[in-house]
Amino acid sequence: MPTANQTAQFDKSAHLAHIIKGLPNLPGVYQMLGKNGDILYVGKAKSLKNRVNSYFAKTIDHPKTRALVSRIHDIETIITRSETEALLLEQNLIKQNRPPYNVVLRDDKSYLYVFISADKKYPRLAYGRGKGNHQHGRFFGPYPSAYAAKETLVLLKKIFQVRQCTDSFFKQRQRPCLEYQIKRCKAPCMGLVSTEEYAQDVENTIAFLKGDGGEIQQQLVTKMEAAAEDLQFEQASVYRDQLAMLREVQSRQAVYKVKGEADIIAITSQAGIICVSVLTVRNGQVLGGNHYFPDLNYADELAENLSQFILSFYFQVSDDLPAEIILSHQLPDQNAVQEALITHFGNKTHLKTKVREHRAEWLELANLNANNALKTKLGDYLELHARFTALKEVLAQVSERPIDRIECFDISHTMGEATIASCVVCDAGGLRKRDYRQYAIHGIVGGDDYAAMTQALTRRYKKQPLPDVLLIDGGKGQLNMAKEVLTELGILDDTLLIGVAKGEGRKAGLEVLHFINHHPLDLPADSKALHLIMHIRDEAHRFAITAHRKKRDKKRSSSVLEVIPGLGAKRRRDLLNHFGGIQKVLGASQQELAEVNGIGTVMASTIYKALHE
Fold it and tell me: Are 345 and 315 contacting, i.e. CB atoms less than 8 angstroms apart?
C-alpha cells in the first residue's frame, strides 16, 4: 500500500504531466512554482511545450536542474507574440521576483562612470555608480572596477587640475585646500583661476575622456610656445609638464589607439564550472574587465548559456549598451537577443562573433582572461571539494545525514550596543552570498549572546528549512541554547547541530567541535575538515562584525550631536556641512567650532565639552 508521501508525489507528477500536455507550441514565458506558490524559476521559450517538457527528461544530469525539478509543484505560462517579447518579459519577471534558481548577477551594485557635473561655472569631475545616481552631467565609461575609475581621476587631476571636491565642500571653502598646494587643483573656490581658463581645462578633460588626446597635445604645444615667446617661462613649464604626462599616458595606451566602443564577452567551461569574461572597451581603450561564474541551470551548450548570461548582464548589471557586443560564440537566438537589448535600451547595438584586426585581438584577450580565471577558480573548487569530502568523512562517525548545505550563525556587538546576528551559507559550490542574512537584535539585555542567538535562530527557522549542518559559534552553552530553540520549533531532528568552540588560548586551529549526542571532536590543525569549518565560521564573524560596525557608527554619528543642549537641527546641519562630516567635527578645535555661522563662542564651548569631556 503506497505511503502518503508516495501518493502526494504521484498526484504532483500527474498534475505536472497534465499541464505539460496542454502547453502550446508558441513562444512565451514559464514560471516554475514551489509548494507554497513561490516562484522558483522564470524562463523563456520559442516553444513552451518543448522547453518545459525538457526539464522532465530522464537524461538530465545537472544537479541544479534536478534540485529545481524536485521542488516544482505547479507551472504557470504567459504566451507572447514573439521570442523578443518573451525575452523582455522574462527579464522583467526575474528583476521583480528574483527567483532562487535564476542567474542573478547584481550585487546591489552597478558599473562606475566618470562624470562632469552640470555646474555652468566650475563643473566638478567625479565618479559614481550608475548613470541614474546623478541627476545632471556628462558620463564616460563604464569602468568595470573602482581602481580603473580612481586611476583615471588621479591622472586627470595631475594633468588638467579640474576640481573633484563635493559641492558642499566647495561652497564652504574660505582658503585653498591641500589639493591647490600640491598642484592638483587651481582653487576655483577662491577665484584663483579665471572661468575661461577653467572652461578650457574642462574641455580638455572631456576630450581626453573621449579619446581625443592628439588634439589636446597640439593645443598644449601651441600654448607652451606662445608662453615662451612672451617670456612667461613659468606658465610654459606648466604646459610642458602637462604635455609630458599626456604623452606618457598615450604611450602606455598606444596599443589601443584605434577607435571603437564595445563589450567583448567570452565564455568557457570545465568540470561543471562556467566562467564568463566581460572586457570593456570605450574610445578604443580597454578600461578593464570582470569575471563571472554564473550558476546556470544546464551545461549542455555554451552558446545557450552565453545567451542566458548576456540578458542577465545587461538587464541586471550594466546600464550602458555599447555600439558593439563581440561574442566568443554564436547565440542560438542572436537576432532575438539583439532586438530585445535595442528595445530595452532604446539605442542600436550589433552582436558579432566574426571579427578581424583589433577586434579579433580584443576577443582573443577576453578568451585568454576567461580561461585564466577559470583555471584559478578550478583550483579553488578542487580544494573546496577536498575539504567537503574530508568533512563528510569526519561527520560520518557522528551522523549518517548527507552533507551538502551548511549554515553558520555568529553574534557581534560592542558592550551590548547595536547587536547583530549573521547567518552565512556554504555548499559544495562555495559560499552562497545571495543567501546570507543579517538580523538586527532587539528587546534583549545588552550583551546577552544566548538571548540574541535564540532570537536569530527563531526568526530564521520559523520560515526557512534547516540546512544539513547548522554551525553555532560557541561552546556547550550556545549549543544547548540552539537545541532548545530547535526543539521548541519541533525541527531538532532535521539537522546536525555543531558548536564550534575556541580552543586553548583562543588560537586558530585548536577549535573543538561539540555535538548533542556525541563526544566532542578535537581535529588536528592540518585537517581539511577543520579548515572548512573555520573558513565558514570566520566568514560568519566577518559578516556580523561588518554589519554591527556600520549600525553602531551610524547610530553614534547621528546621536552624538543630538544630545548637546541648545544645538538644534539647523545648527547640527550647519556644523556637518561646514566640516564635511562628523569625524571632522570631532577633530575641530573650540575656536574652529566658533567660526561656524550661527554657533558662536558660548555654543562652541558647549559643543567642545560635550564631545571631548
Answer: no
Q: What is the pLDDT of residues 35-79, one digit of tens each?
A: 888 899 998 888 888 888 888 876 666 667 778 888 898 888 888
Give the residue carrying C-alpha cell 583550483.
379
User: Which amino acid does the sequence have at 191?
Assistant: G
Q: Does residue 323 contact residue 348 with C-beta atoms inside 8 Å?
A: yes
Nearest CA to 265 out of 203, 205, 325, 345 is that of 325
In what helix (H) or strand (E) does residue 142 lie, and over which residues does it extend?
Answer: strand 138-143
In which residue are the cell numbers 586627470 written? Answer: 156
Map out the domains of the chain with their CATH numbers.
Answer: 4-97 (3.40.1440.10), 112-256 (no CATH), 262-376 (3.30.420.10), 406-555 (3.30.420.340), 560-612 (1.10.150.20)
Nine-digit cell string for 485: 530553540
> In 3D, which of 571, 556, 557, 570 has the Cα closest to residue 603?
571
CA distance 354 to 334: 13
- Which pLDDT tens digit goes with each residue over 303-338? 888 988 898 888 887 777 888 999 999 998 898 889
Pick from 613, 581, 448: which is nearest to 166 by CA? 581
With cell 552562497, the residue in question is 432
**The residue type at 371:** N
